[in-house]
Design brief:
- The chain is α+β, with helices and mostly antiparallel strands.
- The protein has four helices and 16 strands.
- It folds into two domains: 66 residues; 192 residues, Jelly Rolls.
C-alpha cells in the first residue's frame, strides 16, 4: 500500500495538469455575453401613452388597426405557464388591410452579431390555423416571430399545418408545424434562414412578436408567448496558434517528468532514513 500511494498521487496530479491545460486551450480568448434580447420573460408591463396600450418593459409596440378594431397586450398565467398574451379583435368594417400588433426590440452591433450566431427558442401557444392565398401564397393572418431588417421580412409562423417555406419578394415565411391550443417549444435559426434566402447580414434588425389578420377574416384572434431564450455561444476574440498549443503540452510533459523524478528520489530516500533510524535505535 505505501508503494501505491505515491503512484496514485503522481497520476492524479498529472491528470489535473493535463485537464487544466486542455481547458485553458479550449476557453482561451472566449468572451461570454449576456442575452442580446432584454427582458426575455416579458415581465413588468408599462403603458405606451402614444398608443394607449401596455407593453413589456424594454420592448416597443407597434399597432396597425382601423377605428372599430381593438387590440390588447397583457400578462396571464395560461395553462400553467406565465405568458404574454396578444389579442386582436378585427371588425368587419375595418378600414385597414391588416390588423396587427408587434412587440419588438431593435438590435444592432454586438447584439445583432450575437443573435446571428445563436439559436433562439420560445414557448408558443397558437390558437388558430395559418391562412394564406393558395395562388399567390400571400398570408392572410399570422401568429409568430418577425425579423425585419428594413428591406426583407422573415416570418416564423406557428400553426398546425405541415412545415414548409414560402419565398415571396423580400418576404420569407417559414411555417413551423405546431399543434393548436397547447404549449410547444420551437427553435429558430435566423442566420440560416437569411443564408437560404440569399440575403446579406444586415446592419440592424427588429426582433418582433406578431399576431395579425386581414379583412377577409374578422373576429377575435389571440396567441400566447413564453420563455424566450437566446442560446448565445461564446465570442471567440482570439485563439492560440499551433506552436503555442504544442508549447503548452511540452510544458506539461516537463512538469510531469519533474514530478516523476521527484517521486523516485523521495522513494529512494525513505529506505535510507529507515536504516539510519534503526541503527540509532541499536546504539
Amino acid at each position: 500500500m505505501p508503494k501505491i500511494r505515491p503512484k496514485v498521487a503522481l497520476l492524479s496530479v498529472s491528470l489535473c495538469v493535463i485537464v487544466l491545460t486542455l481547458a485553458f486551450m479550449n476557453y482561451y480568448g472566449q468572451v461570454f455575453e449576456p442575452s442580446p434580447i432584454l427582458n426575455t420573460n416579458m415581465k413588468f408591463l408599462t403603458i405606451d401613452p402614444t398608443k394607449n396600450i401596455t407593453k413589456p418593459y424594454l420592448w416597443e409596440v407597434d399597432v396597425i388597426k382601423g377605428t372599430p378594431d381593438n387590440v390588447s397586450i397583457y400578462q396571464v398565467n395560461y395553462e400553467n405557464r406565465p405568458s404574454l398574451a396578444m389579442k386582436i379583435i378585427r371588425s368587419e368594417n375595418s378600414s385597414t388591410v391588416w390588423t396587427t400588433v408587434h412587440v419588438r426590440q431593435d438590435l444592432r452591433g454586438m447584439a445583432l452579431d450575437a443573435v446571428f450566431r445563436s439559436r433562439t427558442s420560445m414557448w408558443v401557444f397558437p390558437t388558430f390555423p395559418y391562412l394564406y392565398n393558395p395562388d399567390s401564397k400571400n398570408p392572410e393572418n399570422t401568429f409568430g416571430i418577425e425579423i425585419n431588417d428594413g428591406t426583407n421580412l422573415l416570418w416564423y409562423v406557428f400553426a398546425d399545418a405541415p412545415t414548409q417555406v414560402f419565398q415571396l419578394p423580400h418576404h420569407r415565411i417559414v411555417l413551423l408545424q405546431t399543434p393548436l391550443n397547447t404549449w410547444s417549444l420551437r427553435g429558430i435559426d435566423i442566420a440560416e434562414q437569411f443564408r437560404q434566402a440569399g440575403w446579406e447580414k444586415p446592419q440592424s434588425l427588429s426582433f418582433i412578436l406578431i399576431i395579425g389578420t386581414t379583412g377577409g377574416h374578422p373576429g377575435t384572434w389571440v396567441g400566447y408567448f413564453s420563455g424566450l431564450n437566446v442560446d448565445i455561444g461564446p465570442l471567440q476574440t482570439e485563439s492560440l496558434s499551433l506552436t503555442q498549443r504544442l508549447g503548452l503540452l511540452a510544458g506539461d510533459v516537463l512538469i510531469i517528468l519533474g514530478l516523476v523524478a521527484l517521486t523516485v528520489v523521495l522513494q529512494r530516500h525513505k529506505p535510507q532514513e529507515r536504516i539510519h533510524a534503526s541503527r540509532r535505535k541499536g546504539k
